[in-house]
Amino acid sequence: MVRKNVSVQPVLIVIALLLCAPWQARADEMLEQASELRRHDPAAALELLDREIGAPDDKLAGGMPESARTRLAGMLELRAGILRDRGRLDAAMADAERLQRLAEGSTDPVLTAGALFLQGSITAERGAIADALEKFHAARRLLEPTDALAEKARINNALAVAHTFAENYPRARQYYERALELARRAGDAAMEASVLGNLPLVIAELEGPDAALQAHRRALAVAERHGAEPLVAQQLANICSVLVQIGRLDEAASTCPRALQRTTELGLRRLAAGARMSLGDLHAARGRHARAHSLYQEVLESVRGEIASVEEPVLEKLVTVHEAMGNPAAALESLRELVDFRQRRRENQRQSLIDELEVRYQVEQQEDQIELLRLDAQLQSARLARRNLMLVSAAVALALVTLLALVSWRAYRTKSRMERELSERNRELEEAVRTIGRLAREDELTGLLNRRAFLERAGEELRRRQRTGRPLTIAMGDIDRFKQLNDRFGHAVGDEVLRSVAEKMRRLLRDLDIVCRWGGEEFLVLFPDTSPDQAIAVLDRLRRGFSGKSLNTPAGTFHITLTFGITQVADDVPGAIERADQAMYRGKQQGRDRIVSAAA
Description:
Largest sheet: 5 strands, mixed
Oligomer: single chain
Order of helices and strands: HHHHHHHHHHHHHHHHHHEHHEEHEEEHE
Distance between the termini: 89 Å
Mean pLDDT: 81
Number of helices: 22
Helix content: over 70%
Radius of gyration: 32 Å
Low-confidence stretches: 1-26
Number of strands: 7
């Protein structure tokens, strides 16, 4: 009797499930334990996370179950945040990049947004505010259609901090207030405390240090009530700084050492550096310049080349204290180091623009190479034509000779084959040129201009506006409730709707208007030689063209509405785009299917 092979696969699956269940519970418990340790013992939290995460093995991410991917992402995000707070920015960025690779295999937008948030926060610590804002806004757009209130609060708080670094305090305050609203709606007490801890930095600039001191004390009370040790340390450091600033030195003398002790114990490197710098300011204000110099030097050694937001002010203070100590040579050396630092920061800010120009240069090089291939094909065609002429002449001369007639016939067939091959090659080259040109300028799905082409056109129109003084207006439009449509009917139907909306926009807008798909369901329209009032009239006709009629698409008939934000372009296209985006966001909050203006 033949014995059948018994499959062991079901047994293995059962065993795997039995082993997986307790591991999952242990992993969730470990993550909760590490989060709690972060509040009062970050070093122990790091040790625990290092042991659990282990060596990177991103090859496994592609086949990783979604639950395991989410837990690993949580551990990476927590560890990167602790490393960032302790000033280990390179290690934090490595975890943030690993988190992004992990998110690429997931369908969860919150995971991708978390990776972008981490990269942005680390980039901001290094002083590249423009790059940080780009990542934060990308994360905000990913989260916009979701109900992730706590994550939205965190991104708005990060945008506010970045604008604070950039000294754009009114806009920073708007983002803080939005973050506070979202944190309270989400019931996230820790995030509420964090926002309340950051908000006084803006209040200090807009309302003065006395108002900021009261706000810091309120934030300290909230942090102590929730037992949030890092936030308590942060507020003590901020209160120390404000007390020194307003000259309440006796209170500062009792607060600043506490702040330094708490931030140092928790390993909060940037906050500890700030507290030590404020303590140096206290000694300088009391004329103890040697002690102030020693503290400033300790700060500089701890942050040099890593925490730009602290390195610059401490260099400025070293220049001042050297002068007060009557040491002009040392003051000059610190001043030179400060100038070098600012030069490096400007170079970093230019790097993103250089990268973009490099990509454009490579595309132009490819276009030049294709043009050379076309010219070479034309030259080969001319040579072939001369060769054909010689063959025809030989055929006429030897027409009476059968053997040579056969040779002529073979030459003719060769010529025909070469002509067909050359014609096909020319056709392929021309098609390649057209394809590259289209891909470089058009959105693949809708056929509208893409970002790169739109920004080039917008730059041209801005320069023309600056020459002629003619008005220039820009609008950001978004399809209302597009996520619900995608979720209900699927992405294929969503793509058909996007194509139909783009086609209808082309028909209803004027010939001089410039329209592009900015991303997702967002569209940008540029109105040359058009005031905001004139552009609103055009947009209102476009909006009513959607609102009052059903949209017929190959996937069916849908009722579509659009919300627009509009503003006048002064001297800055990216700034105008952001104002239009914020106005559109207000339109969404006010009920959608409307046009909202923003001041230039």
